[in-house]
């Protein structure tokens, strides 16, 4: 089976979480989806449109998150280049219905779409000189400026014609990349592509990687508080742990509760106080005062966990650090446990 593919638009979305400026509104969810793809795939591929005159995979404008993942293991992602020699022009009988569908989507996702446009304007104007290596458009769709729905959308969103053409071109590449990826390949595409409902903007979904226990939701919830180094380190650590325990060879849901708790604890996933932890812990002074601390272990290690718990006494959330402290595990629970095979 061919390796799964992630589009470069999704990689830029994840990178936006770790850079100054505007964030891609779908960045956090994509960070979670990328985590599962990376952890459970032997190798991945990423789309890479290139100008013919700059056809090189040594692209300095590639997303930093990709470079960080490859820095620890150069073989984890291969480029899937598409060299743009000529820009094909779409026939109006296909172009206009497809844009009409896109305009309906954009009008009903106005806030997120405008934020996405702002983010991509910033990407295109960075010093990395992305436009030298990568074309702004793959298709010649300049005729859109004469389409009534195009002008209505431009006015309604108060966006430039250039930005709208850029965005629609991104969407139109979806089936092209799907074909390039190969029949049956799983394609993790940006929601701006996946959410379209037009017959000519469609990709037959391939079989996704086998994911016995998903980290997507956990990563989505914690990525906003991580640095790019923490995020990429977590992905590599989780990938290694899953392979060491051969969990990637199991069926979905074939892991018991104790194993999910071990995984969550070892990887430092965000935890919360369970019912026993809230009741016994608060009553005994574990949450609040430190009178019982010396009986449990080294004061320095425990104090760090207690400080975190104290700050979360009302919500039950204790963040990532306490989950790694073994003596605290009895009082904690993780969302990952809900995927266990022995949970009814």
- N- to C-terminal separation? 34 Å
3D shape: elongated
Q: Sketch the topology as an H/E string, one letter per element.
A: EHHEHEHHHHHEHHHHEHHEE
Tally of separate helices: 14
Low-confidence stretches: 129-133, 282-303, 305-314
Domain tally: 2
Give the mean pLDDT: 80
Which radius of gyration do the C-alpha atoms yield? 23 Å
Biggest β-sheet: strands ordered side by side in the sheet? 3-2-1-4
How would you portray this structure in words?
This protein is an alpha/beta fold. The protein contains 14 helices and 7 strands. Helix 3 links the parallel strand 2 and strand 3. It folds into 2 domains: 5-194, no CATH class; 216-339, no CATH class.
List the helices and strands and how they pair.
Elements: E1 5-6, H1 8-15, H2 27-40, E2 44-51, H3 64-72, E3 77-84, H4 92-107, H5 110-124, H6 130-133, H7 148-157, H8 161-181, E4 187-188, H9 191-194, H10 216-222, H11 228-244, H12 257-267, E5 271-273, H13 275-284, H14 299-311, E6 317-319, E7 332-333
Parallel strand pairs: 1-2, 1-4, 2-3
Antiparallel strand pairs: 5-6, 5-7
Helix pairs in contact: 1-2, 2-10, 2-11, 3-11, 4-7
